[in-house]
Amino acid sequence: MTDKGVTLGELKERPVTDLHGVSSRKAEMLEKIEVRSVLDLITVYPRRYIDRSKQTTITDLTVGEEGMVLVAVSKVSIRRMRNRRSLVEVTVKDETGRMKLVFFNQPWRSKQLTEDKELIIFGRLDLYQGNKQMTNPLVDLVGDRTGRIVAVYPQSEVAGVQSWDLDALVAEALRRVMKVRGFEDPVPKEIRKSYRLVDRSTAFLQIHRPGSMQEVAEARRRLVFDELLRIQLELVQRKVQLERSAKGISHNVSGFLTTAFLEQLPYILTDAQKRVIDEISTDLKKDLPMHRLLQGDVGSGKTVVAVTALLSAVQGGHQGAFMAPTEVLAEQHYLGISDLLQNMNVEDDSTLLGQRPLRVELLTSSASSNQRKLIVEKLANGGVDIVVGTHALIQDEISFSSLGVVVIDEQHRFGVDQRAALREKQSDGRAPDVLVMTATPIPRTAAMTVYGDLDVSILDEMPLGRTSIETFWIKEEQAAWDLIRGEVKEGRQAYVVCPLIDESDSLNVRSAEETFTRLSEEVFSDLRVELLHGRIKPNEKNKVMEKFRRGETDILIATTVIEVGVDVPNATVMVVLDAYRFGIAQLHQLRGRVGRGSSPSTCFLVGEAGTVVGEERLKALVQTTDGFELAEVDLELRGEGTIMADRQKGRNDLRLASLRRDREWVEIAREVATDIVSEDPDLNSHIGLRNEISTVLQESDGEYLLKS
Ligand code: ADP
Ligand code: MG
């Protein structure tokens, strides 16, 4: 059934110099755009296509409308304008007439567009002093290529690689492949058929030399699918391997404790909470370790879900651990969780009444050595049911009598290593179930890729009776100060967030310290103002937070240290200075610090937009408080780069696929990968795919994707 065609692996082995027409000089040029192998070459995809059937002539262009013409350069001149910008004027002609092209601030055009060169121009025709002219049109140097659809490749001025060079080389590479055996297609026919995917040879030919735009679309679908399938296969395989190699605990999910806990809650669970608790329970029951991501916007009620999971462990005689990213948050979660679990009893046959109170403890690095010793002892002998803490929980000397469920809050601050360390805490080698929580919503399909080794649950519904947060983008601060005054008079509190701790000369950024001085000595000299930032010692930080929590501070000036988890329901105003300096997710998290009590809240984003994208960001925040909607906007504005984080773009295998545009295909690829791997975990009957994953995916790809 294998067609024994050429594999991508083989093409990766072949240097471009194997092709006719690649001299060592050309190879050097290609090296600069990271094209070394024939595979690199044929996966340089066209940036766009010119549809020549849409081509017209200079005479037939309509003033005020866009059009495409093939022209030849007849004259080029460059001059400097008074504002020192450059102006390149190019006169071009075709058989029917002449017109002028004007390029502002693109001095290199005078070198690129030399006399007699043939160009395809796309732009809007204007009349300037009665003459036909296009300003800053798109220009493609097409050489003498024929065909109705012409592919335009990414050109590199620096490397000296032109579109037609690539076009010719790719054509040569494809000709060679097709002459021998064509491409091997590692994707089973049935799968291709059910998703209407063309075969691989067709895909490569059509993406580079399409006969129509329809063919481009078909080719793209197939190649996008391949890219996504490789990644999903890798991720699903790792996930399955993790599951296979680990033995977990089968928890009792419908015991007395969880039932009693859910019954005594002062509110009704949202449907989303019920659904997610079910999803988690299903995992907990299995004797495979859970490895699940819970995404839920700020205020969506993740804590109750997490506590229910922890209690499932406790009612089976195991322990639960809750890890927070900072001491402040650990303490806060400890208070919150203790509060939720007040008066809860655990069944215990060794006691007289057959019951004893549930024991919750806090362990952070600011505990005294005596306290610490005591808690460490109790963790080891089962004297603690639920422990809340920071990374301090996974230090080596800590062992648990039986760690059953671990909840990790705010995933992005924990690495893979820490997760692994936690798994090793269970003495009998059975891995605890792990629930990772994040309040940073990312679009579902992106989550499938970035957190591909986790199952994903989503709390996509807010509890009823949430107070609204109104958001304003203001250029001047005064309105914010006025509102703060009014709110404080009513006994409420406010946050003022500044981007950086100290004044940086070149950036005109208000520092927290400077803002603190200004507000505490001038604007609000009669109110209680405090300062909190990352350079304050943990102990001090806790004190400042504690005072604010108790309502002994009116206004808290802070940096983003308060970004996550801080929960003071009495705070109703959030002011973010120089808001354009923050990303969407961060602003959304900051805003989530208010609107947590019964009073309506307000968020002010202060300052200029900075950039066009900055403006879009701020507008989006004013428009919606829905974290998932904002995540989509963010992805739209910043592209994959955000999610693939500091990874250089283009180094991974996603050359054509976009997590944003190809959402539907991410889901399909995930499904197909899951089906394949569940039947054939080691891909023994999908050797082609298996080889391709190891040759095409960079070694670091999988690793990277699992890091978060
Ligand atoms: P998250 O951690 O997701 O930001 P929390 O778990 O801190 O949210 O919950 C935010 C607030 O909502 C808490 O005060 C909690 O008591 C409350 N809450 C949670 N679930 C519900 C619900 N179903 N109905 C009403 N209030 C709820
Ligand atoms: Mg929370």
Short description:
The chain is α/β, with parallel strands linked by helices. Magnesium ion binds at residues 302-303, 565.
Determine the structural class based on helices, strands and strand pairing: alpha/beta
What gap, in angstroms, lies between the N and C termini?
A: 40 Å
Number of discrete helical segments: 24
Note the main sheet.
8 strands, mixed
Helix residue percentage: 25-40%
What is the top-level CATH class of the domain at 256-285 and 301-438? Alpha Beta
Account of the 3D structure:
The protein is α/β, with parallel strands linked by helices. Among the domains are: 1-47 and 166-184, DNA polymerase, domain 1 (Orthogonal Bundle), CATH 1.10.150; 55-152, OB fold (Dihydrolipoamide Acetyltransferase, E2P) (Beta Barrel), CATH 2.40.50; 256-285 and 301-438, P-loop containing nucleotide triphosphate hydrolases (Rossmann fold, 3-Layer(aba) Sandwich), CATH 3.40.50.300; 469-624, Rossmann fold (3-Layer(aba) Sandwich), CATH 3.40.50.300. Helix content is 39%, strand content 19%. It is built from 24 helices and 25 strands. Strands 2, 3, 4, 5, 6, 7, 8 and 9 form an eight-stranded mixed β-sheet that branches. It has a seven-stranded parallel β-sheet with strand order 15-16-12-17-18-11-19, sandwiched between helices. α5 runs antiparallel to α7, α7 (200-208) packs across α8 (213-245) and α8 crosses α23 (687-696). It is globular, with a radius of gyration of 31 Å. The protein starts with 7 loop residues before the first helix and ends with a helix. The model is unreliable at 641-651 and 699-708 (pLDDT under 50). The structure holds adenosine-5'-diphosphate (ADP) and magnesium ion. Adenosine-5'-diphosphate (ADP) binds at residues 267, 269-270, 273, 296, 298-304, 439, 463.
